[in-house]
Fold this sequence. Notes:
Elements: E1 17-22, E2 25-30, H1 41-56, E3 62-66, H2 78-82, H3 95-118, E4 123-127, E5 130-132, H4 134-140, E6 144-148, E7 152-154, H5 168-175, H6 178-187, E8 190-192, H7 193-198, E9 204-206, H8 209-224, H9 228-243, H10 246-260, H11 263-274
Parallel strand pairs: 2-3, 3-4, 4-6, 5-7, 6-9
Antiparallel strand pairs: 1-2, 7-8
Helix pairs in contact: 1-3, 4-5, 9-10
Amino acid sequence: MNAHAPVAATAAEWTCFEVTIEDQVAHIRLKRPEAFNSMIRAFWNELPQIVRDIDDNARARCIVISSSGKHFSAGMDLAVFQGGGSTAPSQNVDRHINAEAQRYHIKHLQDAFSCLDEARMPVLAAIQGGCIGGAVDMTSACDIRYATADAFFCIQEINIGMTADVGTFPRLCKLIPEGWVREMAYTGRRMPAQKAKEIGWVNEVYDTHEAMMEAVMATAREIASKAPLAVTGSKVMINYARDHTIRDGLDYIGVWQTGMFSGPHMAEAFKAKAEKRDADFPDLAPVRRQM
């Protein structure tokens, strides 16, 4: 664990998550298996708090999101819809006024997952069983996805008469062929883990949850051993390339390298290799979002 202050709230204080940090890897684990880790109201508030605290304070160099029980997550809890969710109208309010407010509510839900995409460190998702509805949105915002053999993915929203609105389409169309996105979105069918691997949705499929977690945590520790500035630079560049033209991406990496390239970090990497030891790189600096 790095030297920065502990995570803002302890694991016991989170309703939906357990959070541990070890070997410079933050492990965020969904902890409501009895409810298939459905995304209740607390989920939408807690996840961005946890991720932004880790990110802003540079508490770890890699984040792993996993779950517990039979299924990764059944998606958004129905109570969120019934009590002011993205499709729940306010009573006795002009529909246009209500629609404008709904737009901001949807943005609040979207931001809960955008924090994963925007975090300075990579986020790895370890998925077992069902990854349904909102869980597809969440894992699509992660850098890399891994799954167990019994995992499956479902754009559930079409099965309950709505269009997915929290991030599935903007991100999934960048991850897998558009035809597969359309088929899943229009039919609500389940895609098994092996097919998800074939089309590039997940990087690897494991026989058991234990085997998956062992491999994912090993990858996270390997990422954490690299120079954090180089890792975050790689994430920034990959995200920028995803969202821009090749010409714009080439220009931006030139600007980034001009300001962020670190000769001492490269020298340490070479020296550590020559001396057959682990390299010693500085953590990212905490960031201030308020004056």
